[in-house]
Amino acid sequence: MAWGQARAWTRRHATLIDAVFAVVFTGLFFIGYFLGDDKGGHGPRPDQVDFPIAVHVIVGATALVCLSLRRRWPERLLIADTVVLLGIIAATGNRHPLLLLTWFIVGYTFARRTNRRRAWLVAGACIAAMYVAAGLFGDSAWTAPDNLGFAAWSIAVIAVADATRSRRAYIDSVEERARRAEETREEEARRRVAEERLRIARELHDVVAHHIAVINVQAGAAAHVLRTRPEAVGPALAHIRRAADTVMQELGSVVGVLRGEDELDAPTEPTRGLARLAELLDSFAAAGLQVEHRQSGTARDLPAVVDLAAYRIVQESLTNAHKYGTGRAALDVVYTPNAVTIDVGNAIGHGAEATGSGYGLVGMRERAAAAGGTVTAGPVDGRFAVHAELPATAKETP
């Protein structure tokens, strides 16, 4: 976090940092230039060119301006540095080393901040102009090592800057694509979960509404038959009927909000349960999946929510076994006094890759949670196992 704050501060004060760098860099250069001889003298070393003081002043001022403002106007300052350097070459026949170093730094900044075509066009023109000026006004020949060396170093600086810019652009592009992919994946996950919850709510409505409708009909018939019996029975049954009507109206209004306009005519017949398990296994057998089905305990009518969740969990588990397994699966259904337990296992096929979205597992967990149960799923010793426990303590519906 501290590193991020430091980087943000440097971005806000980039010009100030560049100005400090320009002063320090220029000062150290002139200190080394004038005081760097072995005898501690006050003039340039014997291998250095003795430029006039006015040239040093112009060069120092140019270097300070170019280095301080190189992030704001890199192209203009690169051209300005080149023009001053051309004038000094024409006047003295030599390149000033401070302007050469400044050109490298500003040229690198310019190539990092523009496109490849413009970088090579502008920088190439500057390099060619300085090479021609050195050949025309300089003391050395066109093919002298210092002329060719300067051109080579200048081209290398621009090439390194262009490569750095390309790499940075590639990294930014990859990070942006990864960010967008992550956002898209999260949005898709949220959408799928919302759709699964809507489907669960619709199926719960279908099942519960079916049984409430039966209760309503039976209560109406009982009230009609028992009107000649004790007076206390009739009002009680009428109360049941009114309560059932109220529940149906409330449930219809809630589901009306959940459902879309294109689902108003959806069928409302009860969803399948474990009583239709044989048909489900036959359909998988026809598709090529051999299921070894074992049942423990006495099968009985389950609460509607539990029955629906159990059927869908078995269906999704066998579907995954058919996709990623070896063609065989084991299904164990255990009825206990308080719950029904489902275990589905299959060997994972050789080289099989899970190409699904994982929303089926999310749907199984949602259904189990809606029924008050739990589901665990995952690979165990080369097999993929699903274990579900659903409570079944509610009274059976007559």
From TrEMBL:
Q: What is its EC number?
A: 2.7.13.3
The source's domain of life comes to Bacteria
Domain Signal transduction histidine kinase subgroup 3 dimerisation and phosphoacceptor, residue spans: 196-262
Keyword NADP present in the record's keywords: the answer is: no
Stored SUPFAM superfamilies: ATPase domain of HSP90 chaperone/DNA topoisomerase II/histidine kinase
Keywords from UniProt, A to Z, are:
ATP-binding, Kinase, Membrane, Nucleotide-binding, Phosphoprotein, Transferase, Transmembrane, Transmembrane helix, Two-component regulatory system
* Transmembrane segments annotated in the record for this chain: 16-36, 51-69, 119-138
> Which enzyme class, named as a word?
transferase
A GO molecular-function annotation: kinase activity
Enumerate the catalysed reactions. Answer: ATP + protein L-histidine = ADP + protein N-phospho-L-histidine
The cross-references to InterPro entries, in alphabetical order and at most eight, read: DUF7134 (IPR055558), HATPase_C_sf (IPR036890), Sensor_HK_TwoCompSys (IPR050482), Sig_transdc_His_kin_sub3_dim/P (IPR011712)
Q: What is this protein called?
A: histidine kinase
- Species for this entry: Glycomyces niveus
